[in-house]
Specification:
Chains A, B: This is Putative TetR family transcriptional regulator. Chains A, B: Keywords: DNA-binding. Chains A, B: It comes from Rhodococcus erythropolis (strain PR4 / NBRC 100887). The structure is a homodimer of 230-residue chains. The first copy, chain A, folds into 2 domains: 49 residues, Homeodomain-like (Arc Repressor Mutant, subunit A), CATH 1.10.10.60; 128 residues, Tetracycline Repressor, domain 2. In chain A, α1 crosses α2. Chain A is built from 11 helices and 1 strand; from the N terminus they run ααααααααααβα. With 230 residues, chain A is mainly alpha-helical.
Chain lengths: 230, 230
């Protein structure tokens, strides 16, 4: 039997997603513990041996689409970018879009994962791999930025993304791609790296910030600034 | 044999830390796989049964001090605070101080964990429990703040803490408690929640931000501001 005959033209990433979908369907129908590797292989139309060439375990298969997605995100980040901070946010958007397009599958997985502590842990670890990818990318793309700023930014982007992703999967109608874009723009503004702030005025400008009581006259403000600068 | 006779006056938290220390010593001397639960129990002066009353597995014991520490952090956050954002940073400081005081143990554990992927994953999951504690605390302490701001802030604090904690454990002399305080103050400033920003001067000041080329004279700057304000 040709094991891939039923999947003409699929690449390895699509193949992994196909097996993952079948596995998640079986887990949600029959329970995670009760489902065997043999049943998953049969449902996916592959042999047990082919299954184990691609996956080490049942636990492995349930997040198999993340492997492909992580590669996709890494490729996306590897292309040139005029604004690395925005690229990280776009990369997070790609992840969100993928799971929104596969929302039924994501929801079924969510329900399976909630009941198996080992899978919940595995999901957290998987999420952390995106964060590490973002940190590694930014450290090479904006090497002069303080490392802790990069670390904090990547963590904030990942956490906001994960929060909205979970909300979307649980059926929150407000957790849209647009809401994510806005949330990640807010993170960039918070860190002073939105277009129009740090990014577009790198070395060509100095910036002066002045705080004063409301109602202060323009003359008074000018005079105080002059004093400080002089 | 009285199992606790060699540990007079210790409370359950100290007892767990004691067993964890002995386990980590054995893991680092003999390897993680080669060390048995029996050897850990013997080194800690407890029976196998007592061991399994406290821990489910070898994997459990290596991070046992985190359990106590998480409880300690939760208690700390449960007390009243005039500045919840600062309290979260202080809580992260408590964690850092604990591992700095036990740096030898932390370093031995670090070396063991690096070689066992399952333990590395477990450590990530443990770290995430602090982040979730911070999110839950802030959502109840500052309920009017947008949830994504809280989520991003807690993630940034946790990530910066973890980065400096790892640096400290690996022997970086610059990764001090003071460096952590400064880094977390920077996170609060980034989010506009440091004392002196959002917290203490909410409506009493207006702020003017002016960008200008370096070398611009004070007169020129004053004139431009005057123009804009007028």
């Amino acid at each position: 039997m040709s094991e891939r005959a039923d999947l003409p033209g699929t690449d390895p990433a699509q193949f992994r997603v196909h097996v993952a979908s079948q596995a998640i369907r079986l887990f949600s129908e029959n329970g995670y513990e009760a489902t065997t590797v043999e049943q998953i292989a049969a449902a996916a139309g592959v042999s047990r041996r082919t299954f184990f060439r691609q996956f080490r375990s049942k636990e492995d298969v349930i997040f198999a689409d993340h492997e492909s997605l992580l590669e996709h995100v890494a490729e996306f980040l590897a292309s040139d970018s005029a604004d690395p901070w925005a690229s990280v946010c776009e990369a997070a958007g790609l992840v969100f879009d993928f799971f929104r397009r596969n929302r039924d599958l994501s929801m079924r997985r969510y329900r399976v994962v909630q009941h198996v502590p080992a899978l919940r842990d595995r999901e957290l670890v998987t999420g952390f791999r995106y964060e590490r990818l973002f940190v590694d990318y930014l450290r090479s793309a904006v090497p002069r930025e303080p490392v802790l700023e990069v670390v904090g930014f990547a963590a904030a982007v990942t956490a906001c993304h994960n929060y909205l992703l979970r909300s979307m999967i649980k059926g929150d109608e407000d957790a849209t791609a647009e809401a994510l874009s806005q949330a990640l723009l807010d993170v960039r503004r918070t860190y002073g790296v939105a277009s129009g702030s740090k990014t577009s005025t790198p070395e060509s400008k100095s910036v002066l910030v002045v705080a004063f009581p409301p109602g202060t006259s323009a003359e008074e403000i000018s005079r105080k600034i002059h004093e400080q600068l002089g």
